[in-house]
């Protein structure tokens, strides 16, 4: 009887789109696909860590209960190295989930990060799981960098957004990758938006931000319609990161292709819209279903 190939799962970066990884993993498992190792970059490292620890159910329950208000409350703002420290979120994870060492996880796991001042790609495979995930998720300008082993570390999406190469290096013979950079730019971007419509705010914005957007900002937009299409500085910055991520992903995947590429399409997701987990998870499932014939062919 032929030996089954060793399957690796590569989970890509993509901020709030990352909850699609949960749906993709669920759909793969329902088809009998059981990876032996998982590698992740940024939000892919977060989902991958919980999956490798056998705690994906807990994570899914938590993210599907998130509201926009809860997301805002988890933002510990700062001006040092980024807009958000990230301590509040990861302190919550540490209080809710037991300490795990990467070497002791039931499934082999690795995370990708970037050394800030050299641009060197780092493969994190040792030490505390959440420390590695926090380093991999340190999106430049948004989350503060992490100092790890006397090195300043930021988001792995800068150098390897979809870590197929790491999966191969860890021994995967067949790699299924989930690339979230599809649909961020170009013809996909405006799907879900009305013709000429400019999406300025998330669907639910609490407190003074909501009052400001619903009041003064709307009056200003009506008074100066010719400026309505000018994006905010935050949108310019995050879209620029999307461009870099997409270009790097295409380049890396051209030289290090996956055996199966799963591409969730979430064109109108804002960078911080983590409260839309239900939509992302559903699209992750749908993306696997679209690739079902290829998955079956490759596994056969």
What is the N-to-C order of secondary-structure elements (H for helix, E for strand)?
A: EHEHHHEHEEHEEEHEHHEHH
Approximate shape? globular
* First-to-last CA distance: 13 Å
Low-confidence stretches: 194-205
Rg, Cα atoms, Å: 19 Å
- How much of the sequence is in beta strands? 5-15%
Determine the structural class based on helices, strands and strand pairing.
alpha/beta
Biggest β-sheet strands, sense, barrel: 8 strands, mixed
How large is the count of helical segments? Answer: 11
Mean pLDDT: 84
Secondary structure: helix percent: 40-55%
Subunit organisation of the chains: single chain
Work out the number of β strands.
10
What is this structure, in a nutshell?
It is built from 11 helices and 10 strands. It has helices spanning 20-30, 43-52, 56-64, 68-73, 87-96, 129-136, 164-169, 207-223, 233-255, 277-290, 292-299, and strands spanning 7-11, 37-41, 82-84, 108-115, 121-124, 141-143, 146-148, 151-155, 174-178, 260-262. Helix 2 (43-52) runs antiparallel to helix 6 (129-136).
């Amino acid at each position: 009887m032929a030996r089954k190939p060793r399957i690796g799962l590569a989970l890509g970066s993509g901020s709030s789109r990352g909850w699609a990884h949960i749906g993709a993993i669920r759909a793969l498992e329902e088809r009998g696909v059981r990876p032996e190792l998982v590698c992740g970059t940024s939000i892919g490292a977060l989902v991958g860590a919980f999956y490798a620890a056998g705690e994906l159910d807990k994570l899914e329950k938590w993210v599907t209960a998130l509201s926009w208000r809860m997301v805002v409350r988890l933002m510990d703002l700062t001006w040092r190295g980024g807009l958000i420290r990230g301590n509040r979120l990861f302190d919550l994870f540490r209080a809710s989930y037991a300490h795990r060492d990467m070497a002791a996880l039931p499934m082999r796991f690795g995370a990708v990060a970037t050394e800030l001042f050299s641009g060197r790609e780092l493969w994190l495979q040792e030490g505390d799981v959440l420390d590695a995930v926090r380093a991999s998720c340190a999106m430049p300008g948004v989350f503060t960098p992490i100092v790890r082993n006397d090195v300043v570390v930021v988001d792995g999406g800068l150098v390897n957004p979809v870590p197929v190469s790491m999966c191969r290096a860890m021994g995967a013979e067949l790699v299924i990758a989930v690339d979230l950079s599809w649909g961020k730019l170009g013809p996909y971007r405006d799907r879900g938006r009305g013709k000429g419509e400019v999406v300025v705010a998330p669907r639910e914005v609490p407190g003074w931000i909501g009052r400001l957007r619903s009041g003064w900002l709307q009056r200003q937009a009506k008074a100066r319609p010719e400026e309505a299409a000018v994006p905010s500085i935050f949108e310019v910055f995050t879209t620029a990161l999307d461009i870099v991520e997409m270009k790097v992903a295409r380049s890396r995947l051209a030289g290090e292709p996956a055996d199966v590429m799963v591409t969730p399409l979430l064109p109108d997701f804002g960078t911080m819209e983590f409260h839309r987990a239900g939509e992302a998870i559903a699209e992750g499932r749908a993306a696997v279903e679209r690739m079902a014939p290829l998955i079956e062919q490759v596994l056969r």
